[in-house]
Structure formats: structure tokens, C-alpha cells
Amino acid sequence: MSENRCILYTFMFAMLIFGTANTIAGKAMDMSHSRGELFNHPYFQTAGMFLGELFCIFYYFIYKKVTKLTPIQEPLKTNTPEKKSCTAKMGIFVFIIPAFFDFCGSTLMFVGLVLSAPSVYQMMRGFIMIVVALYSVVFLKIKLFKHQYLGVCFAFIGVVLVGLASVLYGANSAKSPVLGVIIIIIAQFFAGGVFASEQLFLENVIVHPLQAVGIEGMSGLGYYIIMLPVLNLIPCHNPDMCNGGYIENSIEAFRQIWASWEIALLFVGFMLSISLFNFTGVTTTKKAGALARSTIDTSRTLLIWGFSMLVGWEDFIWLQLVGFVFLVTGTLIYNEIVKVPFLGFTESIEQKKIYMRNRAEKKHQSTKEEEPDYLGYSPGAVYDQSHFKRQTVTDDIDLEIKQ
Fold this sequence. Notes:
The strands form 2 sheets. Strands 1-2 form a two-stranded antiparallel ribbon. It has a two-stranded antiparallel ribbon with strand order 3-4.
């Protein structure tokens, strides 16, 4: 195994760990008491998430200082200097658009997390693979093949079974399982927009992943600076959805954090884990594609489910296990980790490789050798495993033979 492939797997593993820690910290805050009340502040938590993403700007400046990037090497240029598109003109600020999707999706998901068990919340997020597949076809114009459709079918069955288990059996930590499931599914359509738009922009804009996450965090926090005061003024009397008679009560959130060192510690850990989770996630998208990222995002479900049962947040349910098996199987088939050796599914994988290679050649035929390591890669972009640099069309044949 090459050194750079090991680095990529390290990023994937880090994404798994930080993502697991983030969900657990978020749910632990929801179930914690301070000043005689539950910490019920999903919108405040989402604002904290964006603040955590903003930390990546500081990580980037540290990285730039340590590696001593020169202005020429600094990855702020686009791959289409002759005729600039709207995306190229916006440069790194195109990530304001993924931030809007993230703003909508994350807000809904944190509300769903408050209403649902953490494992159900995480498993229902597996619906993201279906949404990303749909958006890849409609917006990114990426063709799907037979084995991918099979994976989507398995994943859909898994999501249905997990949702059914949540509705029928509930959990100790679920306030409103049915509403929670509905909100989480709706959120996935916005989350899919994050993955698809990031992949689209990373194909066309040369930008370091730390910059991408930091700009998304800055934009999302800006959205919430506008929205939080509004939410603090809208009356609401549903105890499961609101706090202190309003949709959000940010002043009370600060008071509860100040009065409880456990919640304060969880909130800090929550922000740090989300910053590192998003950094490793964007890096994974850049080097392996949006579907690789969504695969890892789904895989952390098992760790969250095990922790939830261990601490008594929920019980073991066979129907949920069956749904999880379907979900994971679908994800593995879709991403070609598991190959079905009949009905032409293996041939479908080979056809997809040829298609993605041709697509990568068309998109990156004019790439210069002196470009920095962190380049915008499409999921099928052909690049040298030892330097993360794209190969020319003639070198591609040699690369295929080596692999």
C-alpha cells in the first residue's frame, strides 16, 4: 500500500471517529439538565456547529505557515482561465452555496436528533446515499450503472425498515419518533445538496479543503446571526420543539452552559469534533468523491448504535438490525466494495470505470504539472497514487496496469 493511499485512509478513519463523537456529543447535550431544564436548543447547536467549521480557517492559516505556501502555489486559481464561468469568477466563495444547504439541512437534522434516538437518526441519514445518487444524475450529469441501482434499492429498503422500527418500538431517548423520522428524511435532500455542490465546485475550483470548510462555516454562522434573533421572537408552546415559550431561547442556552460544566465540555467537544469531521469529510470528497464520503458517513452508524445501547439510550431491536444490514449492503454494493458476481453486475462495474475515466479525461485534459497537491478532483479523476497528481491520457493505461 502506497504512502499517499495510507494518508487517504487515515482521513477516512478520522472522519469516522470525529463524526461518531459529534453525534454522541450532540445527543448527550440534548439529554442533559441545567437550571432544572433539559438543554433543548437545536438551533443554537447548529450555530455552534458552524462556529466549529469556522475554526478551519485558523487551521488553514497554520497549515499555510507551516508548509510555507507561496502566492503562486496557493490554491486559489481555477482550471478555466481562458473563459471564466460564474463559478470561476466567484472563486473560493462559491462555498457560500453549500453553506446554505448545510444551514437548512443541519437545522432540520438537529431538530430530528432531539426528537429521535441517536442510532435511528444516524441510520435514517443513510437516505443521503439515495439523494446523492439522484443529484449526481440530475445535476452533475453522472451516469448510474446497474450495480448502483441495486445498491440504491437495498438502501431504500433499509431506510424503510429502520423508520418502521422507530415508529413501532420507539426508544427511551426519542421524544417524537414519527415526526423525527420525517424531519430527518426531509433534511437529507438539503444534505445531498451539500455533497453534490461541494463535488461540483471542487471539480472546477482549486481550493484547500480547510478553506472550503472555513468559508462554509463563516457563511452558515452569518445565516444564523440573522436567524437566531428571529427565532427568539417567534412564540411556540410545544415542549418537544421549543424552549421558554419561543422556538429558540439563546439567552437561556448560554445560562445553561454557564451553569453546567458537563454541558460546557460537551459543547466545546461538539464544536471541535465538527470542525475536524468536516475537514476530513471535504478532503475525502476531494480525493475520493462524494459517494465515498457518504459511505463513511453511513458507516459510523454502527459505533453510535453500540454506544447508545451501552449507555441505555435505546434497546436492541431486530427489525432495526435487519434494516441496518440492508442499508450497509446497499452502500457497499453501490460503492463497489461488494461485487455481485451474476446478472451482469460485475460487467456493470467495469463499464462504470471506463465511463468515469473518460469523463475525467475530458474534464482534466489541460491540467498543469506544477499545480499543488490539493486539486479539485472529480470522483473518477485519474491521478498518480504517489503524488496525488492527475495523469495524462497516455499515462492512464500504465496506471491501470499497475493497479
